[in-house]
Amino acid sequence: MNPLFSTTRIGRYTLRNRFIMAPMTRSRADDTTGAPSPLAVDYYGQRAGAGLIITEGTYPAPMGKGYVRTPGIHSEAQIAAWKHVTDAVHAKGGLIFLQLMHTGRISHPSLLPNGATPVAPSAIRPAGKVFTATGPQEFVQPRALETDEIAEIVQAYRLATRNALAAGFDGVELHAASGYLPEQFLSSGTNQRTDLYGGSLANRARFILEVIGAMSQEAGSDRVGIKIAPEMGFNDVIDEKPQDTYRYLVEQLAALKLAYLHVVKTSSEFDYRTFLRPLFNGPYLAGGGLTSETAQMLIEQGNADATVFGSLYLANPDLPQRFLGRAPLNTPDRDTFYSPGAKGYIDYPALEKAQ
Ligand SMILES: Cc1cc2nc3c(=O)[nH]c(=O)nc-3n(C[C@H](O)[C@H](O)[C@H](O)COP(=O)(O)O)c2cc1C
Questions:
Q1: 13-15 and 8-10 as β-strands: parallel, antiparallel, unpaired?
Q2: Which residue's CA is minimally distant from atom 5 of ligand 1?
């Protein structure tokens, strides 16, 4: 039997299969309130057959917003809107974790309260452009956080976790990849601090471990996961010794009895998924460019407990059934990944409708 269709344990839950829907920003939220769109109820509900859904990146506090029309989880209106999403997924027997994403310096004053300057571990401007309401613009130089502000951000993740549970989520995932705030702290190229949060490897990892600690105190560590993507290079983040950095981080995480570690393969020639697997004794989620065959192989060879699909799940609401029946797949339409509205969001047909 194909092991993708067998159950597996993640934290306190039994997943009905080993298909995980990857966290994916879709930019359909209300840009003023930060509440997810009513369309998100259909979008996630259609994909509830996954063993676990991880939502799009969601900001824990207004200063964590990095893209237009992305949702938050710091207000009552946001909690109420997310509740409709979790209800729809639970009504179909699914499980759903909320991904907490603070983008740090990968933002723009036009996205932040009162035109604030984005914050980061150090005042180092990222190369590249940010997508704002008026089109792409150069990144600005971020403001380095004061030491006492860091505790406030950790607290924001704590409250966001509390809010996520109030909204009915089954757990939370810390987004520690893609060059956002947690990875900005972790990486030597973006962190030049001289306080407790910079310098040594232990200091650079401190922010992530404190956030994970706060999230775990709220939800229980068995409802907290973390996503990493070593050497992704996205958003201009570089680390001098990434293998040492991620070995240390994962060794620290391993002691915490988390729901899972989610590792995404990047274009790096070094195979981090296989390198890190023996260092983490809990449930291990692997993603990044997977197909039906490579996912099955990862599980059969013991290199993952569950497999994460991004663009394929975006385009195929019934991805497990399609793999099971070796049916053709819908092609993801990049033009509608981040465009507002229903097109390319909730209109990808399921198999029976396509035939
Ligand atoms: C449209 C889109 C939006 C994404 N947004 C996020 C996000 O909000 N948070 C995150 O951790 N990863 C995000 N990703 C990355 C995916 O979670 C995943 O790691 C990546 O797509 C690789 O998996 P795949 O090859 O199966 O698509 C996004 C990917 C896509 C295609």
A1: antiparallel
A2: 24
